[in-house]
# Entry
Amino acid sequence: MDKTKNNRIQETNGYYKLTWLQRIGFGSGDLAQNLIFQTVACYLMIYLTTVLKINPAFVSGLILAVRLIDCFWSPIVGRYIDNRNPKLGKYRTYLLYGGIPLTIAACLLMLPQAASWSMTMKMIYATASYTVLSLIYSVVNIPYGSIMASMTRDNDEVLVLTSTRMVCANIGQIIVQAGFPIGLALCVHSAIDWKQATFMAIGTIPAFVILPSLPILKKWLGKKGLYYTLLAIGLVGFAILFVIGKFFDVENSNTIVQIAKVMTGIGLLVGSLMWALVPEVITEAEHRTGNRPAATVNALAGVAFKAGFSIAGWITPLAMGMVGFNFANEESALPTEPGSWFTVTCVFAIVGFVLLMLCFMGSKENITTTPKKPVSFGEMWQEFKANKCLQLVLGIFVVVFLASFISAPVNAYYTKLANYDTTAQNAILLFTTIIPAVLLVFVGYLIYKYPLTDERLDEINREIEARSHNEE
# Structure
């Protein structure tokens, strides 16, 4: 059988090979979303507490409440998407129709006028703007995650697609984490703190080396061996940061501090790799049920991802206040001029919309199914209970993203450690080094329990293919 005919048969069975234009087009969607998501994850809490001067305890409760709402909202969105098949694409449609309101909501998140309002109005505004943004974000993020499982069944192609997506996501992350403080400094015409900007973003650098090398690294180390190696490097990095912060001068140890931050980024990169497990879980569900519930599984993965983010956003300001560091009262690590925050946020949001449109045009859906009868919430719960792989993946999502985001708003303070008293320094070190390291250890345990090997996935795909032929 010639190669062209063989490839055609494979594509008929769902094993599509994608072009780099398709891969990068798909990945641009994650870059777009990270321009907004990273702004919220790293800087919204600082904005609310240091610019609007809202009590950190209220901010903590707000973040938790909004994410709890989202935990109920995301399955509704996933169920709605799985049960419909719009003309512009089962999943792609929502990048367009959700991207427009998402951009508007992001621009309204940090209105400069809000700084002059009464505290009551500030709290109402913060609650409304953050809630609306979060709900709209799910309408874009859930179908976007589902696109990957609809493009191909090929495990190697999924790995390449995942690495491309995560490289793009990390480009968005580095742009925001370094670009936000730089943008604020430019807006207020102050000197740029390059050490701080570098520390905020340098942990993302390993993604640009490791993610493109995933197929090779996975071949050398195996799937779990790769995860364990990354986690071990991350733990060493957190240990170095703790020792430097506790016993040495951070300002005079910049080189070793930046190297250690890169090492922690390698460990936290496991969070990005977890998205490669989502198509595996979807395939396992299809094997058991006959349906391919991509949006439903991605909705549940999104809930777990947001749960980790939510717990981090809730605990960080609350617990740091308990141990003696109140964000609203301490010296801010960033400029506090309201107009500068609005300007930088709007720039990221508008660029993000353009990238979402590139994703809409570049992604091609090849494998989609719409259930013969609507998926009920009871069936979604049954799928969660029946799918042990899904339970483990969701657990990994919660813990690894809790580790990633629990330190995100505090990282801006690490390079300025000497500006604070001993109590505040200990609080900063607790959240930037100790807690993330402990969480990474637990991530390693959950990965150890994950049962889907590549061999088992190949077997599952062959059985699905054979069943499809028999039905024909």
